[in-house]
Amino acid sequence: EAGASVLLLRTCLALLAFPVYLLSFLGLWEPFCKKVFFPFVLEKISTIHDKKSKKHKLELFRNLADFRSPSGELRLLEIGTGAGGNFQFYPPGCKVTCTDINPNFQESLTKNMKKNQHLHYERFLVAAGEDLHQVPSGSVDVVVCTLVLCSVQSVSSTLREVLRVLRPGGAFYFLEHVAAEHSSWKYFWQQVCFPTWKLVFAGCCLTRELWKNLEEAKFSELKVQHISLELPWTPIQPHIVGYGVK
């Protein structure tokens, strides 16, 4: 019953988004999405998301400085930096390495770097979360990842890389949208939107149960909190927030 309704509504949604499916079939959507559409839309969505998640981020990043290395430095690597919306939460003097698979955020990234001159920006790497080979093992104190695990090819490979680059005692901070409770309407709509959403928003998956991946990764300590952000009319309200220690 639910399965049939999901399929029917998915088809209706696909028809509404037919131009995108056609462009995708012709191989034109992905380059356009990557260069123009996604950076533009993400900036708009991020502005709203940043407002709604600000208090959670302030709470989350409050103890970042606790993970300074013995020398007193805090070396931080961010996976999927995008436009740099998290910079404002990092403590002064923090040494930041930015990574993103998509290099087309330069304009808004530069703007945010200028706004946040309390940080040292070490380097920018075009890299996927699953492959941070340019970063030496055990070389960073903190890894941060917000709204990125939804669209990586492999969550477990990404978490393996996180644990590799972190020094022992270092921490991984996350805030991610996740699958809703299976018996809920929210989950029903996540299933309906799934294929079209994934195509339009550069591979973003709506129904990942990321807390399970985090529990399976080898963190010595893991704090995960399930929260709901007020993002009406979107299928991305359920989130998890927390950190894991290597």
Automatic annotation (TrEMBL):
Gene3D superfamilies: Vaccinia Virus protein VP39 (3.40.50.150). It comes from the Eukaryota. Keywords: Membrane, Transmembrane, Transmembrane helix. The chain crosses the membrane at residues 7-29. GO terms for molecular function: S-adenosylmethionine-dependent methyltransferase activity. Residues 77-174 form the Methyltransferase type domain. InterPro entries: Methyltransf_11, SAM-dependent_MTases_sf, Thiol_S-MT. It holds the Pfam family Methyltransf_11. PANTHER family: METHYLTRANSFERASE LIKE 7A (PTHR45036:SF1), METHYLTRANSFERASE LIKE 7B (PTHR45036). This is MET7A protein.
